[in-house]
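Extended Data, panel c. Modelled sequence:
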Amino acid sequence: MIKSARTFSYLFGYLPIAAANLAKFKKRKTGMSQEEYSKLIHSEPQKWASGIMKRTGSQVEVSGLDYLPEGPVLFVSNHEGNFDIPVLLSSIPKPFGFISKEEVRKFPIIPSYMEEMNCVFLDRTDRRSAFKSITDTIGKLHEGHSILIFPEGTRSKGQGLKEFKAGFMRIAKEAGVPVVPIAIEGTSRIMENNNNQIRPARVKVQVLEPLTPQELDAAGVKAAQLVRSRIEQALADVQ
């Protein structure tokens, strides 16, 4: 109960500071390169996410950061729990946006930051929104921004890897960027498996070797399964 209160107090209590910093960052945008501004914007969510993870008392082990290539990439990760995003924001030094539920727009301040991070919003009840999210993501990648996607669509809550929705491969192929698989294990033990009470957990994040556009093209219709298999094997190795 205490860790839950501390975590959520920090989560929402930090928002006024984040809003003030965002205003400062926007003023500095003129004259900065896209890469410089992306790093500046990423620094605040990274700090916020690190503070959240510290208050959960969890230990996060990260491997494979040497695999991170230059330029835009499509990060493809399994989706175990609600703490996947804070864990990845605090662990991955490369700036990225992500595909998020449309409902997040109802929160204060957070959507403004997400827009600057080049996140894409998706309304799962609207097929046109789903199509637009794909084209928007391709556009972000073409502009040079990296994007994270959870192709399972919903949290597994530690109950095994779900099937991947195939749309992410269309994004990767049309954008012509590398796919960087990520295997994340242990986030469901922070909250989902504790009746939504926050408890410390050991979390392991594995950044796996990228798949180049050429490798994805060569895999053809099996490309999505290839990405999923690499993540599945990495998760199995943790057990």
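The longest strand covers residues 179-185. This feature is highlighted in the accompanying rendering.
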